[in-house]
Amino acid sequence: MRRVASSLTALAAVVALGACTPSASREPATPRAEFLVFYDLGKQRQAEAAVERAGGTAVSADTKLGYLMAAGQGSGFEEAVGADPSVVGVSPDRRIGYATSRPARTGQNTSARAAGFPDEKSFTKTRGEPLAGRQWDMRMIGADRANAKAPGTKQVLVGVIDTGVDGKHPDLAPNFNRELSRNFVTDKPKDEYGETLDGPCEASGCKDAVDVDDDGHGTHVASTIASPVNGLGIAGVAPGVQIVNLRAGQDSGFFFLKPSLDALTYAGDIGVDVVNMSYFVDPWLFNCANNKSDTNKQQLEQRAIITGMQRAIDYARQRGVTLISALGNGSTDLGDPKVDKQSPGYPKGDEKERQVDNSCLNVPAESNGVISVSALGPSGRKAVYSDYGDEQTDVSAPGGDVLDGQGTQATRSILAAAPEHVLRASGRIDAKGEPKGADVVKDCTGGTCAYYQYLEGTSMASPHAAGVAAILVSRFGKPGKGGLELAPATTEQLLYKTATQKACPTPRQYVYKVFGQTETHDCEGGTSDNGFYGHGIVDAWKAATVEP
Prior knowledge:
Elements lengths: L8 H7 L18 E6 L4 H10 L3 E6 L4 E5 L5 H6 L4 E6 L9 E2 L16 H6 L10 H5 L2 H7 L7 E5 L20 E2 L33 H10 L15 E6 L9 H14 L3 E4 L18 H23 L3 E5 L12 E5 L8 E4 L14 E7 L18 E4 L15 E4 L2 H6 L14 E4 L6 E7 L1 H19 L1 E3 L2 E3 L2 H11 L10 E6 L2 E6 L2 E2 L2 E2 L9 H6 L3
Parallel strand pairs: 6-8, 6-9, 7-8, 9-10, 10-13, 13-14
Antiparallel strand pairs: 1-3, 1-4, 2-3, 5-17, 11-12, 15-17, 16-17, 18-19, 20-21, 22-23
Helix pairs in contact: 7-11, 8-9, 11-12
């Protein structure tokens, strides 16, 4: 699923996918039966009693994060349970959604020779891996130089909470830790209304193996972080570290809340050092605890999302996990949001328009203890789609922007590994395995063939920051659970210290011109910390050379 939140209608017509139209009568195929009931810490017994009074059953309890898995029936179950003073929030066991990537395909000529930036000469002259010339993003943050000096160590574990990781991809397999990887989801062929969600299951019991990604998003993220230096394709920011797949996303790109909570707690338990979270919590783009336009049941759900994710984040961080998140692709000042037209976004067709304000949170980007990343185009400007905000943007990193220059060029996006079967299914390669457009690249250096795809989004920016954090842990971490340990507060401090500061543009009201329309984003803050770039652009070279 690719949902792009942008007020630029012309841009949306070029790069966004169309929405489904709901049928006139929408009734769930089966009633919802499972709920996450978050209780005040120390109030488990009272919450269990509330579930029973509402006619439900407490199936299990997660004492780490303070919630019950409860079975209930009837439209009033959530509200009956939520009325008890011991209960903080109640959410159906439903999805969360990532801050989506954007396919880097356009209707114009996007061949390497036609691309204004970078050009074909740079593709052929740049040293490094075979496709290094296409990695303007790595040059922007000095990762091409840092690879040789501080590639990272196998003692550092980077968890990718996403749609999965293609652990058999030739340009990921050497750094993929299959033993520690987990799949926390079971594919769902249909949604609550009986409409296609994931489609037919590929594996027994609808449970994919830990080295499978049927979407491609998670593989792209993992590749940016840690594709090895092996003479094939590309190199990631930290090509020496290990990737742990913490799959919480369905084949369709949708996520469910409980698998995401499980992924975060598991990361903390096994000693993962850095986690990348390229997602936002759905079904609400903005989670509001007390929005008057929402029903009581909807308010309870949003409170559960805010509370549950914060508890999971706190749990992981207290156990040494540095948490990094994509900021979002809504082209929105998160410090002053006005309207939410996308929520609730699941099941599709339930959306409504509502007024929002700064009390409403984009989760996990605005959760406490999370490093949030805005996206940049190849010129260094904030990408047109990237969310921003003086309080919300912590650092910035290349995420791609096909519109950053004259016309539209796929090569202005981020190139990283892609699963071959996903490209075949989406029609991006032909029957002979040849790419159909410049958004897909095939490399067969040394006789081994592998595929790569250009994508753009804050989802692509976040893993650059995660890779730099992994370099810092590799250099300054001490022996501990999982290999090395470095306190998240220290990693964060070093990440900010090594970032290249970048001031707001002049004038601060930056005007994007897109197909005859304009969009103005107001950058607030000083050079050392502002709404477009945060503390600066992450810098792998400085991370590789900074003194403690």
